[in-house]
């Protein structure tokens, strides 16, 4: 059965608003919520970047049934992996077992703030392997001393560890990252509806049991042109793709890189306007590719509450009618 989730987009909403949206997302029937974990918005027009972990702690307290996840946290620079492990363990206890830790190799946009420089992609993936290994070891609740090429852990122990630890989702982009991360992770995280990624993941895991979690932006609104304008203003960075998005350091850089992206270019990638059937057709490639969990991103804060109040429930009904049930 395909599950549908709601994205707590920290780049476009303040922390109190995000908690309120999470409560309403649970009310209208979303089965899970994922949160971005950013230090900066992609574009200045988005205007926000609250701390994801503080906000998710409040969401865990304010909700009761909806699963939660980071989508995704980078544990290689801005956070030490031991700190991520402690945050994840605490959130799992607060949420009473509803949390999954999504991990990835990050973006320069968020990690450059530590002033340490941005490593090349192969090094970032090496660092992510080490970081994930440390997080897994600390979830045992045992005393951990560990040294690798990039990280050290000295006599560390998590004193509050949830029963069963915390499930891990790892962001992958191709066969190389699948080979490296599938042995370390419980679930697949990616943003493209690529059936080859799903097949490769299942082959690497030797099982089809893990969740495959995807994400898609939508720009619902009563007027199509207004919805396109909003998507262009706040989500044109999406057109750059992972290779570009991982390396640009600032919102100003994203503004410069996307200045020639036209509204019609964005509308080709993101369903815009009031037509719920159009949104269903845009989401459909994910379940056709074998994704089990699909998180929607409603673009922009301006119509977020109206989307939850007016469009989310009928959209979920349409999505569940169209998606496979097993």
Provide structural commentary.
The chain has 13 helices and eleven strands. It has 326 residues and is of the alpha/beta class. It has a single domain, classed as Luciferase-like domain (TIM Barrel). The strands form two sheets. Strands 1-2-3-4-7-8-9-11 form an eight-stranded parallel barrel, surrounded by six helices. A two-stranded antiparallel ribbon has the order 5-6. The N and C termini lie close together (4 Å). The relative contact order is 0.15. The mean pLDDT is 97.
Q: Summary?
A:
The chain is α/β, with parallel strands linked by helices and 326 residues long. Helices cover 44% and strands 16% of the residues.
Principal-axis shape equals globular
Q: Kindly estimate the percentage of residues that lie in beta strands according to DSSP.
A: 15-25%
Radius of gyration: 19 Å
Mean pLDDT: 97
Query: Which class do the helix and strand fractions yield?
Result: alpha/beta
Q: Please tell me the CATH architecture by its name.
A: Alpha-Beta Barrel
**Number of H/I helices:** 13
Total domain units: 1
Quote the CATH topology: TIM Barrel
Pick out its properties:
326 residues; alpha/beta; eight-stranded parallel β-barrel; two-stranded antiparallel ribbon; 44% helix
Q: What layout of secondary structure does this protein have?
A:
Elements (H helix, E strand, L loop, with lengths): L2 E6 L6 H14 L3 E4 L16 H11 L4 E4 L10 H14 L4 E5 L4 H4 L9 H18 L5 E4 L4 E5 L11 E4 L3 H7 L5 E3 L5 H11 L6 E9 L3 H12 L5 H5 L5 H7 L5 H7 L2 E2 L2 H13 L4 E6 L5 H19 L4
Parallel strand pairs: 1-2, 1-11, 2-3, 3-4, 4-7, 7-8, 8-9, 9-10, 9-11
Antiparallel strand pairs: 5-6
Helix pairs in contact: 1-2, 1-13, 3-5, 8-11, 12-13
